[in-house]
Amino acid sequence: MPNPKFTGTRSYIATDDLMMAVNAAVTLERPILIKGEPGTGKTQLAIEVARSLGKPLFEWHIKSTTKAQ
After folding, report:
1. How many angstroms separate the Cα of 51 from the Cα of each of 31, 37, 42, 43, 66?
2. Average of pLDDT values for 9-13?
3. CA angle (65 as vertex; 61, 66 as ends), nearest 5
4. What are the Cα distances from residue 45, in Å, to 12, 17, 31, 54, 63?
5. What is the largest CA-CA distance in the chain?
6. pLDDT digit string (tens) for 51-66?
7. Residue 21, SS3?
8. Class of residue 50 by CB neighbours under 10 A (exposed 0-12, middle 13-18, buried 19+)
9. Are 57 and 46 in contact (CB under 8 A)?
10. C-alpha–C-alpha distance, residues 43 and 11, integer Å
11. Is 27:3 a contact under the CB 8 Å cutoff?
């Protein structure tokens, strides 16, 4: 069964470049790092991608002091 594709949602209009990046990550089964200033829609993108693909969303808020272990 082919992977579903993210095309935006009724409440989130994604650019062609953003849809291509998200769909590449989904197809390759690899994570995608989204970064940007506060309030630019990073969390909303994650919510809408998960919702549109029928996948769970796990949130982990990263700060400059966060350390991987």
Report:
1. 16, 23, 14, 12, 27
2. 85
3. 45
4. 7, 13, 14, 14, 19
5. 41
6. 988 999 988 877 888 8
7. helix
8. middle
9. yes
10. 13
11. yes
